[in-house]
Amino acid sequence: MRQMTIDFVSDVSCPWCAIGLESLLRAAQKLQAEVTLDLRFQPFQLNPAMGPEGQDIGEHLQQKYGASDEQAQRTRELIAARGADVGFVFRMDRRSRIYNTFDAHRLLHWAGGEGRQLALKQALFRAYFTEGESPASHEVLVRAAVQAGLDAEGAHAVLAGSRFAAEVREREQFYHQQGIHSVPAIIVNGRHLIQGGQPPEVFEQALRQLASEA
Hints:
Elements: E1 2-10, H1 15-30, E2 35-43, E3 55-56, H2 57-65, H3 69-85, E4 97-98, H4 102-114, H5 117-130, H6 138-147, H7 152-160, H8 165-177, E5 185-188, E6 192-195, H9 200-213
Helix pairs in contact: 1-9, 4-5, 5-6, 6-7
């Protein structure tokens, strides 16, 4: 049995990250007799300068990518279809704004020490993409923490101050310096990069090949 370390660099406001995670988990299930994964979530902010009130998503996509309404709609349909393929529900009608995710990353850092990082990451993806809730809201973040099996008071304590802010910024800077400028970026054993929200079979093939080479 091979053990592989996976650093999953992502943002909780990135739809392709939600797709990529579910794809990776499906691949891991197929490989469970051959490979065990040590999955660690690393922070990446798509919009680090975003204010706490967020921004209308259509306006944001037009400003950042020059996407027309038609292009944005086609992308939403593609994302929803790809999500459905891996069992993730995107409710685009509920998601109208883009938000700052720094506090979500601080909470995820804390969850890593509590052994509940994967559960929290999935709860945060559901909160934003399925329920249309703000990942900048401390109320939403605490609720997601509880859903992930974490202590509500502990989550409140993290969010009330600036705990883990320096650690999150250090990790973000590290991956920027390593050339990571888009997410998801899946780094295997600190050496091999798989980029993007790939289908499960792509992850399965890549992990199986890397395991055989090891």
